[in-house]
């Protein structure tokens, strides 16, 4: 029906009227739109012109305000960790930890401290893919009653370099090459490996970065680490060294490489969406906060230096003490205001937590405050809501860009006698630094105790399962295969021989390099440490996992429903993928709505799949490339597959015959038995069938 408005005549046909309900009078309770000065806007769609077809007038202050604000919407993205996702939540200690620290948020098991957490990748820009091979940031801001405490960690317990002086070079090497500005969010290029191969101190971290830790399944399923050695200070001033750990309650899980690459195309926001959806649906991500506690004497007994960020302390030497739990239960209201503007800083400390002399940490103490000034544009970034302490704060700092607070009175200095209520220093409650004794020459020198770059790299290698080692070899092969400069490839593989001859030999062979290393590895002898492997401690669970059910017209709704209930009983979620977004018409005649059209819901977005093609699968199902890839990828990514007759036919079309079936491929009769359902569920809870890997990937 045609409609005439002040804006002219618009033919609407049978479409919804776009003008309907768009003015304040038709939206009871909604505010009228205003300019930033509070002036109500009459028309938000048409600029002020000299006549309907005439030029726009400069006097249109409403248009100019709107466009000017838009032009300045972006702030500089973070130099590193630009791509990230955040969430609100709380932290609660299991008991009072007064015996080891005076930190207020660790005193009372009845008190929750609000937190904001930001997970991130390191190398890519703000719009880069989530599932790239990279370290993940794990930054936590605790809004404690004694000030904000930031624990700005990563999902890997060590770092590439030992001294802050090298950080800009490391980042320049991994970022897109400056002449061509590629590759984005990838270490697989010449400049990164050139730098790494000239920095043997990076070897230990490279082992982690080439492991599956660098392609996590979810932010909710990865560990976090403070990396550096810190101190806990108790009320009597006693100091103990600590290393911080976060342990995900769901266990640690990773993607496989081919899956990570494909997800990057199908859903660049895979981790962001996963975090958002989980919180939205009430599956609140939870992590245990734990510390390794040790004193100076013990530290001196280790055969590595606890101030060296390329080293970890094996849990066999110092076990973990669980302190409390972190739960993320609220999505941000606004990404920019919170996740983008949140400003972490390792120097945001509270009484009871102190630093060590780790030269990497010391450099970070400068960098984070400095970077906020250029990113957020003002020394008043602490007044942005997400950064503002939730406890009172007051001092004599004044002015600056965008100062929000309005301080009263004539006194902005200390000491003063004119305002007895002005803020004063507080020796009783104030932050005190551990009075570590110092007497040494002023010098640029790396300590001898930082010199062993190989032993812990080998420790990591030796601690992995065969599957994990193979993945590391494959990752080194992939990354170095993208390096054009032969000398760089050779130099890097030379280092790998020094870590372990088997590692060097396998990577050399995989790359087609005819190289041999010395038979004896460099460094000390080390004993494997099981907690360094994620597969050795992987729990069997379906909790919060997704099962993708590819179903076509004619499939029984009762079967799908039975699976849905069974999956949900185990804490998982079943999602329907169909040949049409609208869904499929079941054998019972109902229309079952789909969550995905098959091309938009490939199997690598799910943890396990059901292939339901019915007794006589439709021809378009069997010939469709997306459907065939759905089956082929699920098999190649080692997932549990439940397949009815039509599903088995689809697998066959994808090149997977019944002779290839293994314990994680569960054929389903037309009447699905409880035994088959439970076989499928336990295969799915195992996450992947690692023994299948030998069938789908050539050996490396
Ligand atoms: Fe960072 N790092 N970093 N880093 N880092 C930044 O700070 C820096 C290091 C980490 O979600 C920047 O606000 C230097 C180690 C995380 O907002 C910047 C050195 C670890 C995040 C910076 C390091 C980290 C950052 C960029 C070597 C693990 C994201 C924007 C001396 C313990 C926080 C910003 C968020 C962010 C500098 C090394 C973790 C430029 C100079 C080691 C999780 O200030």
Question: Which helices and strands appear, and what pairs or packs with what?
Answer:
Blueprint: E1 2-5, E2 8-11, H1 61-71, E3 84-93, E4 113-121, E5 136-144, E6 147-154, H2 167-174, H3 190-197, H4 203-209, E7 224-225, E8 230-233, E9 239-248, H5 257-266, H6 270-280, E10 286-294, H7 296-301, E11 321-330, H8 335-340, E12 353-354, H9 359-375, H10 455-463, H11 466-481, H12 486-499, H13 501-511, E13 546-551, H14 557-569, E14 573-578, E15 584-585, E16 591-592, E17 596-597, E18 608-612, H15 619-623, H16 625-636, E19 640-643, H17 645-653, E20 665-667, H18 674-685, H19 693-696
Parallel strand pairs: 13-14, 13-18, 14-17, 18-19, 19-20
Antiparallel strand pairs: 1-2, 3-4, 3-11, 4-5, 5-6, 7-9, 8-9, 8-12, 9-10, 10-11, 15-16
Helix pairs in contact: 2-3, 3-12, 4-10, 11-13, 12-13, 16-17
The protein binds CIS-heme D hydroxychlorin gamma-spirolactone 17R, 18S.
The site of CIS-heme D hydroxychlorin gamma-spirolactone 17R, 18S has 26 residues, from strand 4, strand 5, strand 6 and helix 9.
